[in-house]
Design a protein that fits this description.
Helix content: 25-40%
Structural class: alpha/beta
Largest sheet: 10 strands, mixed
Strand content: 15-25%
Oligomer: single chain
Shape: globular
Order of helices and strands: EHHHEEEEEEHEHEHEHEHHEHEHEH
Bound molecules: S-adenosyl-L-homocysteine
Number of strands: 14
């Protein structure tokens, strides 16, 4: 039965080697051949794998499959950003975004259907949480984007092309960031094996500096990650003090800023990393005053930290506004004057709702378990926006 066949997409190399050995009695190099076909050549069909013996291919198709998510829609922004909506089951969808730049191509992937973190300024949070993505659904986003970009670049479907072509496993994709829907560290079990395939030279062969995990601040998992997988770390800080961060990023009520920063410095020490990138969304009149910049500078000065200021991207029903450009520039200058490196993130793909925090996907079956409701029995009741 098809349902019993193991999906090989995203199986880390060691597991794939064990699978071919135990199920097919094959040598480890067979697993390596399979990985080349799946990731370098984008094959999803064993019959296309012409350098594998016919017998081996037919045995494989009895016990295994390569199943990728289905694309339900693709949109291309005037700035070249692409967004794909992928079907997860009958009613649920997630989004993946490709952002071309002159010197790189960044794929922004999702880790969950919806999100339970309940950050007050994020569109995904308004959707509630449905479920974690599997390893294959996470790696499948890269597999599909690679296929679509290769086709587009070859003048395929729409002929629009992406960044200048590069050959190899990842095509135009030079960086992968977990900045789509979901909290990656809340799906640790599946996110870490997926990252192993991104880093593996027979997978997508990316350097550890080009795979970025972005988290709202799940402190115990940051310590765990420091032991297990070496990738770049981004942290959604968004406020310079606990009072404000409790409101914007409710996980802060469980893991306050002091604890979070201690985990970040530990991560950098342990992983021999360069610095943590702190994301800071610029919300008009909320967290964008000069005093906030000075508080931030006190927290981060002399530390292995960079700040990335993100102009807020609006979505239907939000009560927040983007800070004026002058306020964002002033905020950056105060930080830089205090010796903290701060840059402003350029907004991409907002004409197709593909910018940070705008990914809504389609989460119709919500469990409505939201952190904010669990942590505050008091006044703040999240409003659901349909
Ligand atoms: N759960 C992860 C990934 C979230 S998306 C995390 O929290 O880091 C990546 C970034 O976009 C995060 O820093 C997130 O806080 C930010 N973001 C969310 N909503 C936004 C919005 N409406 N405008 C700008 N940035 C937003």
């Amino acid at each position: 039965m098809a349902g019993e066949r193991v999906n090989l997409l995203g199986l880390p190399r060691a597991e794939l080697e064990a699978f071919v050995a135990t199920r097919l009695g094959a040598k480890p190099f067979r697993a390596r051949q399979l990985m080349k076909w799946i990731y370098r050549r984008g094959a999803a069909d064993f019959s296309a794998m012409t350098d594998l013996a016919q017998d081996f291919r037919s045995q494989l198709s009895e016990v295994a499959r390569i199943a990728v998510p289905e694309i339900v829609a693709q949109q291309v922004s005037s700035d070249g950003t692409r967004k794909w909506m992928l079907r997860m089951d009958e009613v649920q969808g997630i989004e993946t975004v490709y952002i071309p730049e002159p010197d790189r191509g960044t794929l922004c992937i999702s880790s969950q259907v919806g999100c339970a973190m309940d950050c007050s300024f994020c569109s995904t949070a308004q959707q509630g949480f449905n479920r974690n993505l599997s390893v294959a659904e996470i790696v499948g986003q890269v597999w599909l984007a690679h296929r679509e970009l290769t086709e587009a670049h070859a003048g395929g479907r729409d002929g629009a092309g992406g960044a200048p072509g590069r050959s190899g496993a990842r095509g135009n994709i030079t960086n992968i960031v977990f900045m789509g829907m979901g909290e990656p560290l809340a799906n640790y079990r599946n996110v870490v094996p997926a990252m192993r395939t991104f880093l593996d030279d027979l997978g997508y062969d990316l350097s550890r500096r080009r795979v970025t995990l972005s988290t709202s601040g799940l402190v115990p998992q940051i310590y765990k990650l420091a032991e297990e997988c070496n990738v770049a770390l981004a942290v959604s800080l968004h406020a310079p003090n606990d009072e404000l961060r409790n409101e914007l990023v409710p996980i802060n009520r469980k893991h306050p800023i002091g604890e979070l920063l201690a985990a970040c410095w530990h991560y950098i020490d342990k992983q021999n990393g360069r610095s943590v990138t702190f994301e800071y969304v610029m919300l008009d009149g909320v967290n964008d005053k000069p005093e906030h910049a000075r508080q931030l500078a006190r927290l981060l000065k002399g530390r292995p930290a960079k700040l990335n200021l993100i102009p807020f991207n609006a979505f239907p029903g939000t009560g927040y506004r983007r800070s004026p450009a002058a306020a964002i520039l002033k905020f950056r200058d105060i930080l830089n004057d205090h010796g903290v490196i701060a840059t402003i993130r350029r907004t991409r793909g907002d004409d197709i709702d593909a910018a940070c925090g705008q990914l809504a996907g389609r989460v119709t079956d919500r469990t409505l378990v939201r952190l904010g409701t669990k942590l505050t029995p008091g006044p703040r009741v999240p409003v659901e926006i349909r």
